[in-house]
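Minutes, project huddle
Topic: does the predicted pose make sense with zinc ion bound?
PN asked that the exact inputs be recorded in the minutes so nobody has to dig through chat later. Recorded below.
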Amino acid sequence: MFCSVYSAAVCGVEPQMVSVEIDISGGLPAFNMVGLPSSEVREAKERVLRAIENSGYEIPSRKITINLSPANLKKTGSGFDLPIAVAFLSAIGVIDPECVQGMMLVGELSLDGSILPVNGILPIAVFAAEQGIKKLVIPEGNAFEGAYVPGIDIYGSMSLSSLVKDLKSKSLTKIEKADLQLLLEQQYLESTLDYRDVKGQEAAKRATMVAAAGFHNLLYVGPPGSGKSLMAQRIPSIINQLSPAECLEVSKIYSAAGLLKNQSLITERPFRAPHHSITSVALIGGTQAARCGEVTLAHKGILFLDEAAEFRKDTIETLRQPMEEKQIVINRASYRTVFPADFMLVMAMNPCRCGYYPDRSICNCTEAEVKKYFGKIKGPVLDRIDIHVAVEKVAIDDLKEKTKTMSSADMRESVCCAHEMQKLRFKEENIDFNSQMTNAMIKQYCELEKEARQMLNLAYDKYHLSARGYYKIIKVARTIADMEQSRLIGRKHILEAIGYRNSLLEL
Ligand SMILES: [Zn+2]
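Predicted holo structure (tokens), as shared on screen:
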């Protein structure tokens, strides 16, 4: 007696097809599992046998062989319990093999036969639809993930016995499809963080807005308590909401990592702020179990490194590859996978060890010490930060309630306007934002007015700019001009862009 069904293994965030074959033959009673199962999968044997018995079915005293193919793919996770049990029950004739033909199943079984939720259902469901699988059975607890995947019939199930009953009577109930666009619209209105709550700091807000408009990486330098974190946390509130495709892309990552909370997809742009004690592996991903890192959890959102000078220098340097390639390739002995990592990097730091430079009433740090402190973050990653902004202590007048202050809605308008301009400009290119322009693209898309050109040349000589620093200023000026829907880059745009460099960090 032989039967096979489909299942899937998720490595990193990429699912792979696995076929679960079962053979029951004469010979000494035994239960063997082959096909490179991990220890978690090998444990499935006990769970599955008890779950089958406790659901009221008898295990024949025969030789049972289970094969998970392809054999060269390492299978991890507990999601193979359900396909093994169902293949087994059809091999012994409890279920008609016709009913499960071409079906994919994923789910963990508890000893009493109930089906428990597992990680990675969303990427599996999308993958199954792409592969032309017609029917997918998932745990009821993961049903909300299945609801947003079109092009495939998905069924949620509570327990092995109820699934068998439904299969026999051909009365499986489909999970009703939900409208992703509608979900996004509803959730967007509920965002709570707003720049209205950050009093004063208009200059820093302006710089933040420019950064968000061109997806420029950003560095805040300012004393403790000046509101650097408050400012960073609100960046997602001024960028347009995730599109349905982006929402699925980000939610797939969180589903695979087991981080989807409250039975909902990720509807807001991610904001990740790892502590400075984080290791390189936790930051960029690639543990033994192929878990993704913070850079991938920040995909399509913000990666915020507070107290940037406290991070290990080699940890920060690992960001270089994902910042350049927008993805990270992990090669380990047991697997190879690619994690997406398209994020905006925002860093914050104090201006010196005590935190108050250049306020000489408090700070006693010498110039050399200040230089050394900034030296901690110098390197290829800092080179990729286009905008440096000094965040000052809030002036007492600004704390008064009545002072008019920019809200997220005001800021979002300019940001979205600039995004529209860039969308049109780069429709033939493989980039989305000004910050990603190559030097050739800068020449093609950044036309400067005569006065602007003169101003830039003056700055080039005066500040001894490097070529990289020179192009950075043009890129940022391009974004500022886009916020005003101006085709030409003018003098004031260049002037503002020059202001976003920090002499202590020499561009
Ligand atoms: Zn100091």
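Observations noted during the meeting:
- The longest helix spans residues 408-425.
- Residues 352-354, 356-357, 363, 365 surround zinc ion (CB under 6 Å).
No decisions taken; revisit at the next huddle.
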